[in-house]
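User: Could you check the structure of this?
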Amino acid sequence: MTGTAHGRPPGAAAVRHYVTGLAGAVREAVPAARHRAGSRLVRAHSPGGDAQFGLDEVAEAAVWKYVAGHDLPVAVYSEDRGLQYHGADPAHLLVVDPIDGTRPAVAGLESATVSVAVARMSQRPRIADVEPAPLMELHTGAYLYGDLTAPGIIAHGYEHPVPALTRTTDPARMFRSLEFNGHPARLMTEAYGHLIDRSANTSGVFVFNSATWSVSRLLTGQLDAYVDIGNRLLRDDPALLPEFERVGNGRVLHLFPYDIAAAVFLAERDGAVITDGCGQPLGDTVLTDLSITNQRSCVAASTPELHQALLSAVRWKE
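Assistant: Sure, the predicted structure tokens are below.
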């Protein structure tokens, strides 16, 4: 990241300190606010159409307070406030999901993260342009971090060695999470209900309502796979649009760029396989575009064999 108060680019340690500090500022603001009246009430809807809870407002305010309190000029693209600028001619864009997993957060569950992805400013910055990124757990403060100065990722605050990808290859033995928010349940069960039946007893099937939490659990070794196929189902059959709009309160709610930018960067650096539902890379996803054409599906797995098995086993519409 460039553009410090003295015109010198900060080093890798300073960049890590800044972005993890941002995530930490959100984490400090959220717990006390969770018990306030209205924290779990829907106050509005984000630009993408997702429900905005009272707790989201607290987290978004914490992001901007942190950014405004530093001299570094940056552009910030967040879930609820869209694109904002701090300082003149920022060289970098921060793509922030202050709480990925608001529903678990307001319920006091642990499956929520603060997601920050940083890319150089351009006309169409993409996930492939992300340079550093942290994912911080709201519940514990533990975080995963990666940048381009060193291979792999760094883990801080975990009680066991991380990263720790599993070597699972058999779908019948996989622990995985699925997504239903904004997705017609009937369509989801038609597509992979047989996979749920096959492995729900012999392993585990979870719904966390957080893409970043789910992907990060691959990196911690707690899950083998994550599947969110709603966007591919719609792309395969555009006639399904009214069904998706019905469960999305009139909008299509698939994976937005801020949902997956940091998670994709970290997963790829750790060697996990993460693509869209067609098996294509997610790097061309534009970081500031919330349109249906730029929304995504996601299939992530700890091994190439499991990833391919999942793509083959889902009952796609023909």
